[in-house]
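Consortium newsletter contribution from the modelling node. Members have asked for a concrete example of what our holo predictions look like. Here is one, prepared for the phosphoenolpyruvate complex that several groups have been discussing at recent meetings.
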Amino acid sequence: MNINKKKTVIAGNWKMNKTPIETKNFFKDIIPVTTTSKCDIILCVPYIDISYAVKETKGSNIKIGAQNCHWEESGAFTGEVSAKMLKSIDTQYVIIGHSERRLYFAETDTTVNKKIKAALKENLKVILCVGESLEERENDTTNEVVSRQTKVALKGITINQIENIIIAYEPLWAIGTGKTATAEQADETCTFIREIISHLYNRSAAENIVIQYGGSMNSKNAQELLSKPNINGGLIGGASLNANEFVEIINIANSGNV
Ligand code: PEP
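And here is the predicted structure:
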């Protein structure tokens, strides 16, 4: 496959971190150093920070995302936020199916699929997370799990819509643990996901889709991971909270060596 490595997307996932004031300070620190960035930059922030982040990044090349949404437009779903609501405050991306949502909030492949459809309907772009647990990797079922997650998540998604989806391969055992998948392991599963996309859609869709690696990526290991042929970006949790660290990863992505 002739993978479009020119498309590198560095996304941060703040999880449940940072107040609005901390959000403002973070962007004040990073905007000056990201204005000439060739790679795309996305920050997925808590709901409460979105409006502040959108305001601070106006006119910059940083895009703001949420970390979840509900599949209905409105209704009796206490504590939830819809894709329509996110769009109304100029959110551009939404993470769907993060392993912490699957693990702690009973998210299933089916709800992931419903959420993706709702997000795309509102013209939000999606970062779909897939990945196996340690037990699944040790049982040699990584491909089976990732294949099921990807196929169910994309059920009913058209070839035109797939252009608005990024897939983040995030092995659960590497998230927030400090334990990174080796660059070879990460590349191998990203390659496998690309083959699924080729099978579900076509070769061109597979060559052009952005497949990120996520799981304890930082400025020390980013170079090795991002230079792998099938990895075109990173979804970064912990290391995206620190402006200097996040900028360093962006600089690596822009260095021309990846
Ligand atoms: C994540 O939250 O998607 C993630 C990859 O976290 P971390 O980088 O902290 O492992």
